[in-house]
Amino acid sequence: MKIFFTNETKKLDRFTIENEPIKSIDLMERAASSVTFEIISRWKRNTPVVVFAGPGNNGGDALAVSRMLIEEGYTLDIYLFNPLQKLSQDCLKNRDRLQTIEGLKFSKSVKPSDSTNTFPHNGSHFTEITNEFIPPTLTKGTLVIDGLFGSGLSKPLSGGFGSVVQYINSSDATVVSIDLPSGLFGENNTENIPRNIVQADLTITFQYPKLAFMFAENEQFTGEWKIVDIGIHPDIIEQTETKYYYIEPDEAARMIMKRSRFVSKHNVGHTLLIAGSKGMMGAAVLAAKAALHTGAGLVSVLSAACGEKILQTSVPEALFIADEQDSHISDIVLNRSYSAIAVGPGLGRHEETARAFYKLLGQIKRPIVLDADALNLLAGHTELIENLPKNTILTPHHLEFDRLFGKNDTSYERLNKAREMAIRYHIIIVLKGANTAIITPKGDVLFNSSGNAGMATAGSGDTLTGMITGLLAQGYHPIPAAILGVFLHGMAGDLAAEKDSQEYITARDIISQIGQAYKKLHNYRV
Ligand SMILES: NC(=O)C1=CN([C@@H]2O[C@H](COP(=O)(O)OP(=O)(O)OC[C@H]3O[C@@H](n4cnc5c(N)ncnc54)[C@H](OP(=O)(O)O)[C@@H]3O)[C@@H](O)[C@H]2O)[C@@H](O)CC1
Ligand SMILES: Nc1ncnc2c1ncn2[C@@H]1O[C@H](COP(=O)(O)OP(=O)(O)O)[C@@H](O)[C@H]1O
Ligand SMILES: [K+]
């Protein structure tokens, strides 16, 4: 699924209006009915609803939703903010449509005598604010619908609008934002004013997720977010270029390569994992198991001698190459050719290991996977990045990324840096976290849609490294190997969390669900 910038919204909108064709007001009606449907399915009809509508089309949506909810039997207190006495055409139309509702009480501005503005018990109420605003009481049971601003936000909120947002945020009400939490820019919020951004519990967003939703620091604003399809024309989606994508299950499913009936373990790849050291052998065990369960034909683990028994007992399917040293890797000799190589899980940073690793980098001709301590060692010699084979996959989490490429203050900044580095060095960067971003050497960014917070558990990253390497070994090109590996890993984590719970799961539970994850993806193809 493509992620567009919010400044493209008008273009997508216009094309749909002209080519479907559909009247602009009807497109708004369609968007509003999707929002209404979502609200009805979650909140009972006796929930008191307070609506904050702005002067643009986001406000128009909110007014259309208001009308639909009143027709469904909800009681609403609606505030339309119109300080400049200028409403968008469709907002105006929806204000007029609201006026046709029988029994809805209208007032132009809050009367000063109304200073204890409590919820209307006898039917719904609409107030258009042109100057003075006396806020309604928002209690724990109140549902606030935030339709102040959406994709048309042109500067950070301030003044009166800032105060309204702060008032909403300081209440105990549950907040649903339409399209975007008001005050949040769809992309870059580096210069924004956080206290003037609505903190929603749920954001119902139109057509595609916004880039800002992918960043950890914006979770406080978006809350849970849900995409609703409002029927933007498929041709304009196809024609409009973007660098940002959100990976959906059917797209991941299409990447799975069919196995020939005549396949042998030698042509589904021999994986070499250079991993493990004294005290961290589990990382090698997890990566080896993950590679095998992802479909690698053969897996060898080159590791510190102390790991031999551990590995051979816990993963009898894997071969073991013991280093001369008991506690760490001191030399890496490739005495045969491997289909895919990964370095890093549990590697440690012993001086001799570092030396062996740097030497290996000088010999490697094909893309490899670098994770964990391999990345930390690379951070000590960043000049070596230049010579990494094209399409080499780096799998850093945020801290490892910053160690390698310098500190970043925001996720937005880090993502831009990652794009710059992936392009400059022709590498693939898998920036791990919730919504892991896979960044290609062309600078395309693919955000993962699977996975859950239960996966923030020791060894979960080692598992991912094993999976991506296992795919590479089977002949997947590095880009689909990274995408499919990340998606499958997240889906296995989701299945594990569904079976038990996010708190319970460990890396082993993720591995145990790889099979079910494959099965689920295979089902998307039929
Ligand atoms: N195709 C789609 O996806 C569809 C989108 N739809 C909906 O339309 C929404 C976008 O509507 P929109 O373009 O009218 O913009 P919106 O966010 O309502 O705000 C614009 C108004 O706010 C003002 N303003 C801006 N910043 C401000 C500030 N800091 N402080 C004060 N004022 C500020 C701005 O003034 P201006 O900057 O022009 O001076 C203008 O008056 C979108 O999010 C979705 O909900 C659906 O209906 C159907 C299909
Ligand atoms: N909150 C989260 N939501 C989804 N996935 C997560 C979350 N936190 C971590 N993960 C995933 O779990 C893995 C953790 O990797 P990493 O930090 O390297 O762990 P380790 O080094 O312990 O193996 C990554 O694939 C990451 O995307
Ligand atoms: K909004």
TrEMBL record:
Question: Which Pfam families does the record cross-reference, listed alphabetically?
Answer: Carb_kinase, YjeF_N
Which UniProt keywords are given for this protein, alphabetically ordered? ATP-binding, Isomerase, Lyase, Metal-binding, Multifunctional enzyme, NAD, NADP, Nucleotide-binding, Potassium
So which cofactors does this thing need? K(+); Mg(2+)
Q: Which residues form the YjeF N-terminal domain?
A: 9-238
Residue sites binding K(+) per the record: N58, D146, S182
The YjeF C-terminal domain covers which part of the protein?
A: 248-521
The reaction(s) annotated as catalysed by this protein in its Swiss-Prot or TrEMBL entry are: (6S)-NADHX + ADP = AMP + phosphate + NADH + H(+); (6R)-NADPHX = (6S)-NADPHX; (6S)-NADPHX + ADP = AMP + phosphate + NADPH + H(+); (6R)-NADHX = (6S)-NADHX
Q: What is its EC number?
A: 4.2.1.136, 5.1.99.6
For binding AMP, which residues are annotated in this chain's numbering? Answer: K432, G433, A434, N435, T436, G461
User: Which HAMAP family does the protein's record reference?
Assistant: NADHX_dehydratase, NADHX_epimerase
How is the subunit organization of this protein annotated in UniProt?
Answer: Homotetramer.
Protein name as catalogued: Bifunctional NAD(P)H-hydrate repair enzyme
Top-level taxonomy: Bacteria, Pseudomonadati, Bacteroidota, Bacteroidia, Bacteroidales
